Amino acid sequence: MYQINEFQQRHILDAALADRVANLLLAAVAEKGKASIAVSGGSTPKGFFQALAKKKLPWHAITVTLADERWVNIDSSASNTQLVYENLLQDEAAGATFFHLKQGKTCCEQTLSTLNLAAERTLLPLDVVILGMGEDGHTASLFPCSDEIDQCLALDSPALIKVEPKTAPHQRISFSFAALAASANVFLHISGEAKKQVLATAIAGEDSREMPIRAFLHAPNVNTQIYWAE
Ligand SMILES: O=C(O)[C@H](O)[C@@H](O)[C@H](O)[C@H](O)COP(=O)(O)O
């Protein structure tokens, strides 16, 4: 399932999404004493990150992580971690805990199993998930071109998996569809006409292996809130 929220300008979307997410995080902390959020990298979320960072929230009780990360050093311009440190873990949000997806020297089985245990212990199920979407219909690092696509979408996959996209650079570590879709609050943040067309194509078809975002749009038990601006 999905709902579409359209905004005329990106900064209005950013403010509205930050308000909504702040309320959800606050409610989760009030209920459980802690909250977790997975955000996406890419070029779209910067303004949203900066708006959310200014919210007065009990950030010390909030864990921030990424829906996916590229296996690159934090000083690389391709690092989503760097993007989050520079734009979200600032201002009020500087007090949040960050759960790193790139831990250990290599992205091997041992690294993944340690990471999965730590995620299970500290942040799953995610209270809030913010997804982006690529023009090929990928979301997080659930890439249609990858050999791991079945594992990306399988309901019994581990929360964190290794993905090697064939049409995008870098080895990735990504939350699986199952782990992301287990969140009660899944958002898809996109902007521009091209993404609107991609969304229309995704909505019109069924095959999630072809466009992984479809898994979030069509699953009856997931209500994906789409935030789109011009
Ligand atoms: O690390 C990443 O690349 C992502 O998390 C990815 O899923 C991203 O959200 C989309 O590719 C959209 O990226 P843009 O916002 O740059 O279009």
Characterization of the model:
The chain is an alpha/beta fold and 230 residues long. The chain has one domain (2-229): Rossmann fold, CATH 3.40.50. The protein is built from 8 helices and 10 strands. The protein has helices spanning 10-32, 46-53, 80-87, 109-122, 149-153, 177-181, 193-204, 213-218; strands spanning 2-7, 35-39, 62-66, 68-70, 97-98, 128-131, 160-163, 172-175, 186-191, 224-229. The strands form 2 sheets. The protein has a 7-stranded parallel β-sheet with strand order 1-10-9-6-2-3-5, with helices on both faces. The protein has a 3-stranded antiparallel β-sheet with strand order 4-8-7. Helix 2 (46-53) links the parallel strand 2 and strand 3 (62-66). The model has no long low-confidence stretch (mean pLDDT 97). The site of 6-phosphogluconic acid has 14 residues, from loops. 6-phosphogluconic acid binds next to loops. It is an enzyme of class 3 (hydrolase). Residues 13-218 form the Glucosamine/galactosamine-6-phosphate isomerase domain. It catalyses: 6-phospho-D-glucono-1,5-lactone + H2O = 6-phospho-D-gluconate + H(+).
CATH architecture: 3-Layer(aba) Sandwich
Strand residues, percent:
15-25%
Across the major sheet, the strand order is 1-10-9-6-2-3-5
User: What is the β-strand count?
Assistant: 10
Instruction: Tell me the count of domains.
Output: 1
Biggest sheet details: 7 strands, parallel
Helical region count?
8
Described by its quaternary structure, the protein is single chain
The helix content is 25-40%
Order of helices and strands: EHEHEEHEHEHEEHEHHE
Low-confidence stretches: none
By secondary-structure content and strand pairing, the structural class works out as alpha/beta
Compute the average pLDDT. Answer: 97
Bound molecules: 6-phosphogluconic acid
Distance between the termini: 23 Å
CATH class: Alpha Beta
Shape: globular
Gyration radius (Cα, Å) is 16 Å
The third-level CATH topology is Rossmann fold
